[in-house]
Amino acid sequence: MAFTLFRNVIQAQPLFLHSSALLRRKNGVLYCTMKSTSQSQTQTATEEKQQQKSPQKVKVSPQKQMKEVSKIAADYEAVIGIETHVQLSTLTKAFCSCPYSYGAQPNTCICPVCMGLPGALPVLNSRVIECAVKLALALNCKLSFSSKFDRKQYFYPDLPKGYQISQFDIPIATGGSIDLDLPLEFGGGHRRFGITRIHMEEDAGKLMHSGNGSYSLVDLNRAGVPLLEIVSEPDMRTGIEASEYAAELQRVVRYLGVGNGNMQEGSLRCDVNVSVRPIGQAEFGTKVEIKNLNSFSSINRAIDFEISRQVNLHNQGQQDSIVQETRLWEEGAQKTVTMRKKEGLADYRYFPEPDLPEVVLTKDYVDSVGKSLPELPEAKRRRYEEMGLSMQDVLFLANDITVADFFDATIQKGADVKLAANWIMGDIAAYMKNEKLSIIDIKLVPHELAELIASIKSGTISGKIGKEILFELLAKGGTVKGLIEEKDLVQITDLGDIEKMVDKVIAENPKQLEQYRSGKTKLQGYFAGQVMKASKGKANPGVLNKVLVEKLNAKV
Amino acid sequence: MLSTLHSPRSLSRFPLHLTSSVKPRAASASSLSDYPPSPPLPVAQSPGGAPASQILTIRRSLLSGSVTATQLAESYLSRLRLTEPQLNSFIHVSDSVLKSAQEIDDKIAKGGGEALGPLAGVMVGVKDNICTVDMPSTGGSRILENYRPPFDATAVKRLKEKGGIVVGKTNLDEFGMGSTTEGSGFQVTANPWDLGRVPGGSSGGSASAVSARQCVVSLGSDTGGSVRQPASFCGVVGLKPTYGRVSRFGLMAYASSLDVIGCLGTSVADVGIFLNAISGHDKFDATSSKQEVPDFESLFASINLLESKPLSGLKVGLIRETLDDGVDSGVKSAINAAVLHMQELGCIVNEVSLSSFSLGLPAYYILASSESSSNLSRYDGVRYGKQTVSDELNALYADSRASGFGPEVKMRILMGTYALSAGYYDAYYKRAQQVRTLIRESFKTALDSNDILISPAAPSVAYEMGEKKNDPLSMYAGDIMTVNVNLAGLPALVVPCGFVEGGPSGLPVGLQMIGAAFHEEKLLKIGHLFEQTLQGCRFVPPLVADDPTWE
């Protein structure tokens, strides 16, 4: 359906352009779209650090980066606050019954309401409230039992009604906090950052600009998709604190199931405010907003760049040239550049949205939502810690709720905690990485992992056989018992059976025996290997070696 | 201004237009000879002159087979063709009226007469700011010229489901902003009582069309009096329902917290039956009410017109502030006569004072302008409607809106934008909201001690065309009787109650009855009794009274 036109400038077309990584200044307003990716959605801060593969990216080790910043900024302190937009994965949009799916053909998820046709009215999707209450409770916020929607008014082609339905002076939640543990490679440590407010609003559509800038296309699929905006207190001081704040928010969102938190798709978007002040100064310096932060590492690097930039200006006595502005993070150049100045002058003429009644929450409703909350990342980490796992293990396992669920289910079946953690973080994680699978895609189920661990522990199978079985289970599924039986893999521990095999091997290798007995004791390994081969790997190595040494050294 | 030397009582009992309405038909018939003869209409006028329900008459006639829906439709269409060149009530006339009528006849022929909806065969005019899927819907604005919505407004959908036939889209002041219908981006509508006068507004086309019997009933919208004032000017019944009674889905928003879709008809019964058909909760309008909708029709059947004091003991409060200076003496006289009439019916009429009444007008204009400045932002030329060729984004917005909107709309957008601006919000918008609360409370107090409140529907009868064109403040002042009711969200019924001298046969005056929220039933009952017992007044404009096809 062709409806969006901008004769000469914005063209009337069914929007044929697929979203692509376009970034162009247009009419003084910069608009960008994120690149579509089909990769798994479990990208995290730590994984990201391991896979900085873009040739444009400058590789800087975390330690080096931090040292440089702390060297420059020794006399200064940075103050960082973040505004995060979380797209909610409700089945339908915030104010109409259109479904939304990322990457759908342009203008196929639209209706009169989200197109802003004359006479169309918004009707609130109650799932949006549920998501907001969940997140508010998870972030320890105080809920407003009566809040309202407001209109934020401005003109832009991606905003069909000429206003965005948002919440202004009475947001649904205020005054919360978020707890997180910094990664060990950044020095570790626990942090708690304040949450100023959470409010509900609708997303705008997307513009796509033609290659030569002669026209632009409007895709309204995203218009009206529900968002929660989470505003932090200015509690962060470094890039890593800020990126870990965002990563923790992503974890919470995913644990709650309110959104997919995917930064590449724009389902989680962070705008960062950075200012610096001489240490000891009470008032804040002039703040600068940074946009276009599409990954946790770009948040980290953009902030550290910006801190250096501002501190350098201070050091050169040019602190007056730090002005309130919006700057853009350029991934290629690894720097921030001015996008638009004169912030703070926009007058959005907020007023209460007359088309929507007040949002009234009852205590019963909030209690019932509270009861439905899963164990949150912070609680999980503390529990894992108490179970005796190292912080490295804790951070790995609690990072992704599907991994944590798998781990929890495994130990619930009685598996040893440390062994279960090792299997998951070792061979299973490696397999997932190689095969590009997430833990919910593998064929292995927690129950069988617990069985496998128990079978090894009890000596039914050897660790080596265990590994073989594991890969079988990962790729094809089945049960540990079934595979052991089917492949006849039960470990041979019977002394008599092993003695027979050893005798046979020694008898078949008189030459090697002679060499061994003449002092070439290294050949013990050769004999062990031959026996193991004969047993098809099933001989218990301890018993085997004990018998072998006895027999090899036996006085003739 | 208009006034009369007649005593109020004699004025309402012996309206001046009687002389013209008894003219022999032959005298004017010759001028109509160019038009094909229309079949006779079922009589929708009781012998005593009191208006009978056209809807009920049509239903009876269709079921008895004395007339077909097609004949009915042809009759209305032929009168429409006859009168439209003088009136310009419609921006667009449907080309599928006869097809819809035929479908009803087919249904009756197949023996499905019992399954006919309550509005079967009823010709309905729809104000052009209400979306209709098969016709253009412009809101009276050039910015939406030729715009066709992909959906029917809920009210339209419901009236169609009940058998109603949309005859066309009626003219209005652009987006409902105005009180004369001269603010339409397309045409000026005339008042059937005097073609040199305005029909009122903004639902002027809907009022004019019903008054001239171009349709049976019509949908209007009422943000500050846009159904009631034109009803008064055109001598028809107009009902502004309680806010939320009728879904606003499909009504082009002017001021969302004040807008309601209302009904116009030639009798209270028609308006009541029509209201029932379009009311009720709508999942597409979060502000629509879940209150039960009573069956108003059975109400009219049960009213005993023979009782001498049918409204005995009913407490009626006459709002003192509505009879202050600035109200034409002729209007005052007609209202005083109406008061006497109500007393004869047994009502106890007392004056009540609403202290915040005079604050309503400024509060209304601030709130309505503020909301409209926001609601009209969507007309940006990007997705639909008028678009000016521009090579730059801001110019596209500015040029499209500058050429698409008329002067009144622009003024209100500017006023509203100003009132919502940082630094002015508290002084204007917020204060106006506080006034709104006061007004709501004062109505509540007055309605706690009275069954209904009454006032004139407008301080004057219909203006001459152009009279208010260059004096917007005086036009705004004309809304004094009605805006308070919107601010309070209450239902109000306007019933013609008398005449003032003027035009070829007098100009009608409307009496406004205001009830408590969701008490439309009470208003309709009182209005019906009032209308049926009002002696000697016949609110058929000369344009129709002279038409041989009428009655």
From TrEMBL, chain A:
Residues 52-62 have a biased composition (Low complexity). Residues 405-552 form the Asn/Gln amidotransferase domain. It catalyses: L-glutamyl-tRNA(Gln) + L-glutamine + ATP + H2O = L-glutaminyl-tRNA(Gln) + L-glutamate + ADP + phosphate + H(+); L-aspartyl-tRNA(Asn) + L-glutamine + ATP + H2O = L-asparaginyl-tRNA(Asn) + L-glutamate + ADP + phosphate + 2 H(+). The keyword DNA repair does not apply. One of its GO terms (molecular function) is glutaminyl-tRNA synthase (glutamine-hydrolyzing) activity. Its EC number is 6.3.5.-. PROSITE patterns: GATB. Its main location: mitochondrion. Heterotrimer of A, B and C subunits. Belongs to the GatB/GatE family. GatB subfamily. This is Glutamyl-tRNA(Gln) amidotransferase subunit B, chloroplastic/mitochondrial.
Automatic annotation (TrEMBL), chain B:
InterPro entries: Amidase, Amidase_CS, Amidase_dom, AS_sf, GatA. GO terms for cellular component: chloroplast stroma; glutamyl-tRNA(Gln) amidotransferase complex; mitochondrion. It comes from the Eukaryota. Keywords: ATP-binding, Chloroplast, Ligase, Mitochondrion, Nucleotide-binding, Plastid, Protein biosynthesis. The keyword Mitochondrion applies. SUPFAM superfamilies: Amidase signature (AS) enzymes. It is an enzyme of class 6 (ligase). Allows the formation of correctly charged Gln-tRNA(Gln) through the transamidation of misacylated Glu-tRNA(Gln) in chloroplasts and mitochondria. The reaction takes place in the presence of glutamine and ATP through an activated gamma-phospho-Glu-tRNA(Gln). Subunit of the heterotrimeric GatCAB amidotransferase (AdT) complex, composed of A, B and C subunits. This is Glutamyl-tRNA(Gln) amidotransferase subunit A, chloroplastic/mitochondrial. It comes from Linum trigynum. The lineage of its organism: Eukaryota, Viridiplantae, Streptophyta, Embryophyta, Tracheophyta.
